Amino acid sequence: MSEATNPTVTTWMMQATDGCQAYLQACIGWQQELARFADVRLAGNRRTWEALMSSRDVAGALKIQQDWAVQAANDYTEEATRLARLATSLSLTGTTPAVHRTAMVIA
Questions:
Q1: Residue 94 φ/ψ region, left for φ over 0, alpha for ψ in the -120 to 50 degree band, beta for the rest
Q2: Which of 41, 67, 97, 107 is 20 to 30 A from 78 via CA?
Q3: Where are the alpha helices (DSSP H) in the chain?
């Protein structure tokens, strides 16, 4: 029996292909999330600059800056959580459902 017709080799190749596809999908998800986050932050920064340019006094400018800092801190914290979830899903690619359940309990 040749390697090309060996069922074990064929099964292994199919599993490797499935794993590669899952990995690439996870990488695409990671890139899409980073692009989404960058878009959100850039839009927030643009709004902040517009508000700063229309500010009439120092107190107003400080309030705008404070609001921006709070929003940025919240956005980065939420993004860290999203990226941690994506990293966990990537690390679980190809594992059994029991491993998935264990990881969800730990997370």
A1: left
A2: 97
A3: 7-54, 58-91, 97-106
Name the nearest CA neighbour of 68 among 83, 46, 35, 39: 46
Residue 55 is classified by DSSP as -
94: tokens are 């190809």
pLDDT tens per residue across span 7-40: 788 888 887 887 788 788 888 988 999 999 999 9
Tell me how far CA of residue 10 lies from CA of 3, 7, 14, 57, in angstroms.
8, 5, 6, 72
Three-class DSSP category at 4: helix
pTM: 0.71
> Is the Cα dihedral 38, 40, 45, 50 positive or negative?
positive
